[in-house]
Amino acid sequence: xxxxxxxxxxxxxxxxxxxxxxxxxxxxxxxxxxxxxxxxxxxxxxxxxxxxxxxxxxxxxxxxxxxxxxxxxxxxxxxxxxxxxxxxxxxxxxxxxxxxxxxxxxxxxxxxxxxxxxxxxxxxxxxxxxxxx
Length: 133
Ligand code: HEC
Fold this sequence. Notes:
Helices cover 56% and strands 0% of the residues. By secondary structure, the protein is an all-alpha fold. It is globular, with a radius of gyration of 17 Å. Bound molecules: heme C.
Protein backbone atom coordinates (compact mmCIF):
# COMPACT_ATOMS: atom_id res chain seq x y z
CA UNK A 1 0.00 0.00 0.00
CA UNK A 2 2.67 2.42 1.12
CA UNK A 3 4.91 1.30 -1.70
CA UNK A 4 2.27 1.95 -4.36
CA UNK A 5 1.49 5.37 -2.87
CA UNK A 6 5.16 6.22 -3.07
CA UNK A 7 5.27 5.14 -6.69
CA UNK A 8 2.89 7.88 -7.87
CA UNK A 9 5.25 10.87 -7.72
CA UNK A 10 7.88 8.75 -9.43
CA UNK A 11 5.45 7.76 -12.19
CA UNK A 12 4.44 11.40 -12.65
CA UNK A 13 8.08 12.42 -12.88
CA UNK A 14 8.74 9.74 -15.49
CA UNK A 15 5.73 10.92 -17.48
CA UNK A 16 6.86 14.54 -17.36
CA UNK A 17 10.40 13.57 -18.33
CA UNK A 18 8.98 11.61 -21.26
CA UNK A 19 7.07 14.66 -22.48
CA UNK A 20 10.04 16.98 -22.58
CA UNK A 21 12.57 14.66 -24.25
CA UNK A 22 12.91 14.63 -28.05
CA UNK A 23 11.76 11.56 -29.99
CA UNK A 24 9.60 10.36 -27.14
CA UNK A 25 6.46 8.29 -27.48
CA UNK A 26 4.20 11.31 -26.94
CA UNK A 27 5.80 13.03 -29.94
CA UNK A 28 5.67 9.83 -31.97
CA UNK A 29 2.01 9.11 -31.27
CA UNK A 30 1.07 12.75 -31.88
CA UNK A 31 3.12 12.55 -35.09
CA UNK A 32 1.22 9.46 -36.17
CA UNK A 33 -2.11 11.25 -35.75
CA UNK A 34 -0.85 14.30 -37.70
CA UNK A 35 0.57 12.02 -40.42
CA UNK A 36 -2.67 10.04 -40.76
CA UNK A 37 -4.69 13.26 -41.03
CA UNK A 38 -2.47 15.13 -43.51
CA UNK A 39 -0.12 12.81 -45.38
CA UNK A 40 -1.40 9.23 -45.49
CA UNK A 41 -3.99 9.84 -48.22
CA UNK A 42 -1.12 10.39 -50.67
CA UNK A 43 1.90 8.68 -49.07
CA UNK A 44 0.02 5.72 -47.58
CA UNK A 45 1.45 3.77 -44.67
CA UNK A 46 4.59 5.58 -43.53
CA UNK A 47 6.71 2.42 -43.72
CA UNK A 48 5.25 0.46 -46.65
CA UNK A 49 3.38 3.13 -48.62
CA UNK A 50 0.37 0.83 -48.66
CA UNK A 51 -2.87 2.70 -49.37
CA UNK A 52 -1.04 5.65 -50.94
CA UNK A 53 -1.27 7.10 -54.43
CA UNK A 54 0.87 5.74 -57.27
CA UNK A 55 4.05 7.76 -58.03
CA UNK A 56 4.14 9.19 -54.52
CA UNK A 57 7.34 8.65 -52.54
CA UNK A 58 7.31 6.08 -49.73
CA UNK A 59 8.88 7.22 -46.46
CA UNK A 60 9.93 3.77 -45.24
CA UNK A 61 13.37 2.11 -45.37
CA UNK A 62 13.04 1.33 -49.12
CA UNK A 63 12.29 4.97 -49.89
CA UNK A 64 14.47 8.03 -50.22
CA UNK A 65 13.23 10.16 -47.32
CA UNK A 66 15.87 8.99 -44.85
CA UNK A 67 18.62 10.42 -47.09
CA UNK A 68 17.42 13.94 -46.27
CA UNK A 69 18.41 15.94 -43.20
CA UNK A 70 15.69 16.91 -40.74
CA UNK A 71 16.11 20.57 -41.71
CA UNK A 72 15.56 19.75 -45.38
CA UNK A 73 12.57 17.55 -44.66
CA UNK A 74 11.09 20.40 -42.64
CA UNK A 75 11.48 22.73 -45.64
CA UNK A 76 10.13 20.15 -48.08
CA UNK A 77 7.06 19.54 -45.92
CA UNK A 78 6.39 23.19 -45.11
CA UNK A 79 6.98 24.02 -48.78
CA UNK A 80 9.66 26.62 -48.10
CA UNK A 81 12.16 24.71 -50.27
CA UNK A 82 11.55 25.45 -53.91
CA UNK A 83 11.32 22.15 -55.81
CA UNK A 84 10.58 22.65 -59.51
CA UNK A 85 7.49 20.77 -60.64
CA UNK A 86 6.34 20.17 -57.11
CA UNK A 87 2.83 18.76 -56.84
CA UNK A 88 2.72 18.16 -53.08
CA UNK A 89 0.73 20.81 -51.22
CA UNK A 90 2.62 23.17 -48.92
CA UNK A 91 1.96 22.82 -45.20
CA UNK A 92 3.27 26.22 -44.16
CA UNK A 93 0.64 27.88 -41.95
CA UNK A 94 -1.18 24.53 -41.62
CA UNK A 95 1.30 22.56 -39.52
CA UNK A 96 3.65 23.95 -36.89
CA UNK A 97 7.34 23.02 -36.85
CA UNK A 98 6.65 21.00 -33.69
CA UNK A 99 3.98 19.00 -35.53
CA UNK A 100 6.37 18.32 -38.42
CA UNK A 101 9.03 17.17 -35.95
CA UNK A 102 6.41 14.78 -34.53
CA UNK A 103 5.76 13.42 -38.04
CA UNK A 104 9.50 12.93 -38.61
CA UNK A 105 9.87 11.14 -35.26
CA UNK A 106 7.00 8.88 -36.30
CA UNK A 107 8.52 8.19 -39.75
CA UNK A 108 11.84 7.26 -38.14
CA UNK A 109 10.21 4.43 -36.20
CA UNK A 110 9.96 2.59 -39.55
CA UNK A 111 13.61 3.05 -40.56
CA UNK A 112 16.45 0.59 -39.94
CA UNK A 113 18.77 1.48 -37.09
CA UNK A 114 21.72 2.23 -39.41
CA UNK A 115 19.51 4.54 -41.48
CA UNK A 116 18.41 6.37 -38.32
CA UNK A 117 22.06 6.82 -37.30
CA UNK A 118 23.23 7.98 -40.74
CA UNK A 119 20.33 10.39 -41.03
CA UNK A 120 21.11 11.79 -37.58
CA UNK A 121 24.66 12.56 -38.77
CA UNK A 122 23.40 14.13 -41.99
CA UNK A 123 20.94 16.22 -39.96
CA UNK A 124 23.69 17.52 -37.70
CA UNK A 125 25.90 18.56 -40.62
CA UNK A 126 23.55 19.43 -43.41
CA UNK A 127 24.29 23.14 -43.42
CA UNK A 128 27.98 22.32 -44.03
CA UNK A 129 27.01 19.80 -46.71
CA UNK A 130 24.84 22.35 -48.52
CA UNK A 131 26.70 25.64 -48.02
CA UNK A 132 24.40 27.51 -50.41
CA UNK A 133 21.60 27.16 -47.86
C1 HEC B 1 -1.75 15.50 -52.37
C2 HEC B 1 -0.79 14.46 -52.11
C3 HEC B 1 0.25 14.67 -51.02
C4 HEC B 1 0.06 15.01 -49.69
C5 HEC B 1 -1.25 15.31 -48.99
C6 HEC B 1 1.37 14.99 -49.09
N1 HEC B 1 2.33 14.68 -50.01
FE1 HEC B 1 4.34 14.57 -49.67
N2 HEC B 1 4.65 14.30 -51.67
C7 HEC B 1 3.67 14.12 -52.62
C8 HEC B 1 4.28 13.95 -53.93
C9 HEC B 1 3.56 13.68 -55.24
C10 HEC B 1 5.68 14.05 -53.74
C11 HEC B 1 6.79 13.97 -54.80
C12 HEC B 1 7.29 15.35 -55.16
C13 HEC B 1 6.21 16.23 -55.74
O1 HEC B 1 5.62 15.86 -56.79
O2 HEC B 1 5.89 17.27 -55.14
C14 HEC B 1 5.88 14.27 -52.30
C15 HEC B 1 7.11 14.41 -51.67
C16 HEC B 1 7.33 14.40 -50.32
C17 HEC B 1 8.61 14.38 -49.68
C18 HEC B 1 9.97 14.40 -50.40
C19 HEC B 1 10.31 13.04 -50.95
C20 HEC B 1 10.98 12.18 -49.93
O3 HEC B 1 10.32 11.35 -49.31
O4 HEC B 1 12.19 12.34 -49.76
C21 HEC B 1 8.39 14.34 -48.33
C22 HEC B 1 9.42 14.27 -47.23
C23 HEC B 1 6.96 14.37 -48.12
N3 HEC B 1 6.36 14.42 -49.36
C24 HEC B 1 6.33 14.36 -46.90
C25 HEC B 1 4.97 14.61 -46.73
C26 HEC B 1 4.34 14.81 -45.43
C27 HEC B 1 5.05 14.68 -44.10
C28 HEC B 1 3.03 15.09 -45.66
C29 HEC B 1 1.97 15.44 -44.67
C30 HEC B 1 2.24 16.57 -43.78
C31 HEC B 1 2.82 15.04 -47.11
N4 HEC B 1 4.02 14.74 -47.70
C32 HEC B 1 1.60 15.23 -47.74
C33 HEC B 1 2.32 14.10 -52.39
C34 HEC B 1 1.70 14.47 -51.20
